[in-house]
Amino acid sequence: MAIPSFFVSFTKILVGFCLLCMVHKDFVVAGFEEVRVEHDTNEPLTNGSITTAGTGEDGRSELCGTDLSFLGPPYGNMSTAKMVCSPIWNTFVLRYHQREDNVMTIILSAVYTTGWVGIGFSRNGMMLGSSAMVGWFNRKGHARIKQYYLQGAHASQVIPDKGELPLNGIPPVVSLHGAMIYLAFQAKFEHRLGRQPILLAFGTRYPTGFHHLTKHDDKTAVWFDFSQASVLNIDTSQRKNHGILGLMAWGLILPAGAIVPRYLKHKDPLWYYLHAVIQFLGFILGLASVLLGIQLYQSMNADIPAHRGIGIFVLVLSILQVMAFFLRPNKDSKYRRYWNRYHLWFGRMALFFGSLNIVLGIQYAGAGDDWKIGYGFLLAITLLVVIVLETFSCMRRRRDKSNLPSNFQMNTI
User: What InterPro entries has UniProt attached to this entry (predicted)?
Assistant: First the structure.
């Protein structure tokens, strides 16, 4: 079948545009915004957040000049002049002091009414695999502070009394002072902390049962530079866009394009053009998802070997499929059957590993139930469409078979 020249030209333009995006330097610039907290600035603070309007140090003095003696030793004995104090997010204020032996004293404070407040340390800005200190006062007014290991997004996967924070022998403390809750703990790290991903979250509902955390009401992830007291806000929309593009490409468009040649072959040549256009659209979205993944890896150090490796493998399979489009033999070529097998099985492998990588991405990112339900819905719709089309296909084959003329036995003369 001859391929229209305009279709080939359009395809080359799309592929060339995507390759250009891969090398364009502006496409891999991190979408972060840095806020440097200088101790001699005249910027006031409102509700514990950094603002740029007005003058004076009343807000900072109120937040960072609080006498910490109510925490008791050793936290209450530390001079506020020796501690770095930095508003970090919302009403959260982080105080810390790092000794030469890499022992760090950390005091987190925030406005508190009910529920819990937590600070987590992450390797890459993601919740999965991080460790957090969480403090609260229960309904009876008893103070509680525990370390948690964040194994997953579900409440049952946030495990109390586990974690990788190297706490030393000094018991952590949680205390109420005015409208603020204070979490204080010490940890001895192997190396002096510099730029470190920090997770911050709070929930207004009390932990349940055996200190199982309830779902947070709000959360954020930031890069915090302990050597310079600067906050680098992680643009979580990049992760979301990466997931949406991958879900649309490998969860919806590419499976839909694969369905077309199986059930619309009788609509020749319509099925061919539909298949090609849909698959190229899916390839572009999948490539954009990979580019965002590279950007996340560079800006957040989001090193997830399994997810990244499968993503690269799927991208290679996709590129081979695009190349196969331009190398497609004619129908009467003796190599056509080998090309058909190659195209079929490489496409199936790409779809399988693409779907697998969606599941891994949702798991590693600690995405909520909305993502799982959304992808499950796409899978259910795809399966339903396949069942319906397979039924119609079987009915059509039976109908065509019944319309064939019967064979007549000819007597030899």
Answer: Cyt_b561/ferric_Rdtase_TM, DOH_DOMON, DOMON_domain
Domain ranges of the chain: 64-225, 236-397
**CATH of region 64-225:** 2.60.40.1210
Q: Which two tokens stand for residue 256?
A: 């839909």
405 vs 242: CA distance, rounded Å: 56
Average pLDDT of span 238-253: 88
Give yes or no for residue 335 having a pLDDT over 50: yes
- Quote the CA–CA distance of 92 and 135 in Å, as a whole number: 13
**Euclidean distance between CA atoms 158 and 150, whole angstroms:** 5
* Lookup result for tokens 């950007």: 295
Q: What does DSSP assign to residue 27?
A: G
- CB count in 10 Å sphere of residue 206: 16
DSSP 333: -
Alpha helices in 44-129 (DSSP H): 58-64
Residue 57 pLDDT exceeds 60: no
CB 129 within 8 A of CB 123: yes
Class of the CATH-defined domain 236-397: mainly alpha
ω into residue 197 within 30 of 0, thus cis?
A: no
Q: Please indicate whether the domains covering 64-225 and 236-397 agree at the CATH topology level.
A: no
| Contact yes or no for 306/360 (Cβ under 8 A) | yes
Whole-number Å distance between alpha carbons of 150 and 225? 22
DSSP helix/strand/coil, 163? coil
Residues 6+ apart with CB under 8 A from 147: 131, 132, 133, 134, 160, 161, 162, 163, 165, 167, 172
Closest CA to 198 of 168, 174, 231, 229: 231
Note the pLDDT of residue 285.
Answer: 93
**Closest listed residue to residue 163, CA positions, set 203, 208, 119:** 119
pLDDT given at position 147: 92
Average pLDDT, the chain: 78
Cβ atoms of 200 and 89 closer than 8 Å: yes
pLDDT of residue 186: 92
